[in-house]
Amino acid sequence: MSNAIAEPGAAAAPGRFRREVPIQYGMAALVVVLVAAPLVPILYQSFLTGALYDHDARLTLGNFARLAQTDGFGTVLWNTFLLAALSTIVAQVFGTAAAILFGRTDLPGARVLGELFLWPIYLSALVLSFGWYSIYGPAGYITLFWQSILGEAPWNLYSIGGMAVIAGVSQAPLAYLYCLSSAGMTDPTLEEAARVSGAGTFRTLWRITLPLMMPAIAYSAVLNFTIGLELLSVPLIFGEPAGVTVLTTFLYNISATSPRPDHGLVATAAALMLVVIVFLVWLQGRLLGNTRRFVTLGGKATRPRPFRLGGLRWPLFAACVAYVVLTGVAPIGMLVLRAFTSFLSPMVPLVDVLTLENFEILWREPVYARSITNSFVVSLVGAAGATALIGMIALIVHRSEFRFRNALHYTALFPRAIPGVVAGIGFFYAFALLPGLGGIRNSIWILVIAFTMRFIPTGLGAVAPMLLQVSPDLDRAARVQGADWWTTTRRIMAPLMRPALVACYTILFISFFKEYSTAIFLFAPGSEVIGTALLQTWVQGEVGVVASLAAIQVVVIAVCITTARTIFGVKLHG
Amino acid sequence: MADLKIEGLVKRFGEVRAVDDVSIHVADGEFVTLLGPSGCGKSTTLAAVAGLDRPDAGRITVGGKVYFDGSRGTYLPPEARGCGLVFQSYALWPHMTVADNVAFPLTLRKVKAAERKRRIAEVLALVEMEPYADRYPHMLSGGQQQRVALARTLVYQPSILLLDEPLSNLDAKLRDRARTWLAELRTRLGLTTIYVTHDQIEALSLSDRIVVMNGGRIAQLGTPQDIYERPADPFVADFIGTTNFLPARVAAVAGGAATLELADGQRVDIAAERPPESGAQVMLAFRPEQMRVAASGEGATPDGSVITARVLSRSYVGGRWQVGLDLGGGPLRLEIETPPHADAVRLWLPRSGCILFRGAANAAA
Question: Whole domain around residue A204: which residue ranges?
Fold first, then answer.
């Protein structure tokens, strides 16, 4: 073709230095350190007589016996189980029903209702709890309204049942998403066959559609049960005042709020929780099979013919609207409204109480202003760093010949089994143990590190499916033409992964922005974030400030989701 | 340019030996096709040469440069090999224009900008894609993408060219044109080329030699004429072209010829260099074009035999009739211009040109 070619053949000399080796080993080491950092100190501490940093501490098995003999610990375990089980039932019933109604029938406005149904997934259970408090609490809007007309309200949020309903509602979207994606993947002819052979709408739903959803229901049930066990906000807000303690609040009480924490006991309880969750996550993996572990809601090519609801169409529509309004729209709306008022009651006209004073307090008090700034820094910067890390992990796991890529994959997914409270306690120990890290310990960077570790699996869940859709031929072509792994990663894979990384960044930004359960063990004066400020202010009883902080959180998340969806076309269901 | 030596190549996937002791020597400038059904190991062999898959054993050298040596643990990563590989999917990078795609391998080799521009123009002219330099891959048709993929590979003058079913994603008409074009290009460039395909027409028309693969092993290695006219076993006979198989028994042997008895007792005389012993079970293989309907009253001659087959079905396929026959219990298909009216049809089979395979193995399956 041409005789002016000076260097035929290979671009890279054989036997040269392979720069992917330090990069891949370095990333793997970083992930191992991140994931091990909270775990090792907890496990070690659970076998020590004294505090971890105490030189007199000796190895012992006594902590386990002491924990078992702690007053009321049996009740704590029973409450934990009961709350998780009840909230799972609530979540599964509502989630499955919503999936069938919004996904498979001719219910009017199904798409909009489905969107509204998902809202709790974007908010923290903490904010949802405040919202519920503002309308169903003892002095809540609807409670007072009910009392003025019908007498004593029949509900009580300060009970296991009340907490289970709030937690269940906040987890129902998960069940909904899994059932919906399973319904989308099912062969619609299976249902059509049943209808052709004479089964009516409801018989087909009951005998064909629902059984076909069973794997999704079972999987999301285990997932929701796990989340129920890890839940801190709802029992902290509604359980503690009523004297109902669960494992997370037990841990919170004996560590974060205790003046002289018994570290052996804390670590042992945390280790116990860890073991249970690890088992449940393993069970999830068994139920789903390894490949579909973090499947997102996929697009469907052909939509199955929706069921006709007939005469029940409008009554069911009314019921769905009532559900969405009563569980999500009204609590959040009322919370936002509360932020703009000094007091909220059905007995007082709204115009009399409208005020911006709550926001003025946020502006005036440095602790609140700081918590908002910190939240933004942690989320904007932290999510960027975490996205870069997760992108690299995904590329090494799925697109390299790195020898330990499978081990790296498991390690990177392991944080799914580390509850937020356990991660918080663990990182607290880790930074207490290592000298020279004091600077980080009292800054927001400890939060960035802890959040990053916690949300690696979430981010991978957003990146991996999209990465797997990029044909391996594209990077192989670059390799054959002479690009080494690192050049291929930068020049070919990184640009192709841009949509995946944007989705990952959005999801991480939201996750970081609403996170509180890890943070309450790690923050120090000066490194508050919105989540910790919310809890602290709640304890002080400043409902107006809580409402305005929560309103800011809700608005930021809403803006973030809308932007990501409309500008970048990001799909966020993970 | 260089020659390629593959010696004793083995690649396992779990328990399966995808490539099982394969040895091929491709001379400098030769065009060799790996042909076989899917799963025969042809693409795995190609991937091993390109360095995309690490084989389990064997040795691969190109022009004296060792790519892989299982016994010494030598393994060059793909980027250090300098092969050119055109993917079945073309693998054009969607975020780069045609010119950027072609420029990428040159940038890697630190070719100066002016020189780079000249070579891009030259190679795009070669594949007749010059006007499309600023388009993105998704704006091109399948045939155009394929040309760009080839240009991207040729631009850095690879030591050998590897083509993985490059025509299989094109529709039938375009494939014919692309094949002709590829044949011209191949004559012009004279690159050492390994071509992987499952399409026998591509293999026969393009190759200097063909390697027919089956179950990870080489079934036959030879020129297109060899493979078509003298298939080594029933598999090759069946895979290349359409072949009819008739089970038979050797009734008599006499000096370079054998008389076969079909299952229904009819007899056929066949020329065979080394006929099997009398009484052996054999498989008689012949091409459809070797057989014709016998003229009325035509009988057996020293050149061929006449046999009678029962007509099972006739269907009109446009200009011709496809007739399903039963010949001594075995199915046979024939395409003729006038449909038979009787229930039976007399067929003429030449004495030479047919092939005998030993054993009653069911090759046609």
Answer: 73-254+312-355
List C-alpha distances in Å: A515 to A122, A123, A424, B327. 11, 10, 11, 79
Comparing A437 with A286, the larger pLDDT belongs to: A286
Tokens linked to B275:
């006929």
Asked whether residue A347 falls in the same domain as residue A386, the answer is: no
Amino acid at B11: K
Domain membership of residue A59 (yes or no) is: no
Q: Looking at beta carbons, which residues of chain B come within 8 Å of A18?
A: 77
pLDDT digits (tens, 9 = 90+) for B175-233: 888 888 888 888 888 889 999 999 888 899 899 999 999 999 999 999 999 999 888 88
DSSP letters spanning A22-54: HHHHHHHHHHHHHHHHHHHHHHHHTTBSS-TT-
User: Does any CB of chain B come closer than 8 Å to the CB of residue A111?
Assistant: no
Which chain B residue shows the shortest CA-CA distance from A486?
B79
> Could you say which architecture CATH assigns to the domain B244-358?
Beta Barrel (2.40)
**H-helix or E-strand spanning residue A273:** helix A263-288
Core vs surface per residue A61-75: b (16+ CB within 10 A) or e: eebbeebeebeebee
Q: Which tens digit of pLDDT belongs to each residue from A108-158?
A: 988 899 989 988 888 888 999 999 998 898 888 888 888 888 888 888 999
Taking the Cβ of residue A13 and every Cβ of chain B, the question of whether any pair is shorter than 8 Å is answered with yes
In a domain, A55, yes or no: no
Query: Is the Cβ–Cβ distance between B268 and B278 less than 8 Å?
Result: no
Structure tokens that stand for B64 in this block: 């004296």
Task: Give me the CATH number covering residue A549.
Answer: 1.10.3720.10
Looking at beta carbons, which residues of chain A come within 8 Å of B108?
11, 481-483, 487
Helix, strand, or coil here: B135? coil
H helix or E strand, kind and range, residue B336: strand B330-336
Q: Cβ(A265)–Cβ(A157) under 8 Å?
A: no
Residue B361 to chain A, least CA–CA distance (Å)? 40
State yes or no: pLDDT of A525 exceeds 60. yes
Residue A367 lies in a domain: yes
Q: What class is the B4-239 domain?
A: alpha beta
**Interchain proximity B159–A8, CB inside 8 Å:** yes
d(CA B81, CA B75): 10
CB neighbour list of residue B17: distance below 8 Å, 6 or more residues apart: B10, B11, B216
Residue B311: CB partners within 8 Å, gap ≥ 6? B323, B324, B325, B340, B342, B343, B344, B345
Instruction: Indicate where chain B has its CATH 2.40.50.100 domain(s).
Output: 244-358
Flag whether residue A195 sits within 8 Å of chain B, measured between CB atoms.
no
Whether A27 and A110 map to the same domain: the answer is: no
pLDDT at site B246: 85
pTM, whole model, 2 decimals? 0.83
My answer on whether A192 and A325 are in the same domain is: yes
Query: Does A14 sit within 8 Å of B76, measured CB to CB?
Result: yes
Note whether A12 contacts B79, CB cutoff 8 Å: yes
Collapsed DSSP state (helix, strand, coil) of residue B291: coil
Cβ-defined contact of A476 to B91 (cutoff 8 Å): yes
Distance in angstroms (rounded) separating the CA atoms of residues A251 and A77: 12
Domain count, chain A: 2
Q: What is the ipTM for the molecules in this complex?
A: 0.80
Whether A422 and A557 map to the same domain: the answer is yes
Indicate which of A466, A476, A480 best probes the interface with B, i.e. most B CBs within 10 Å of its own CB: A480
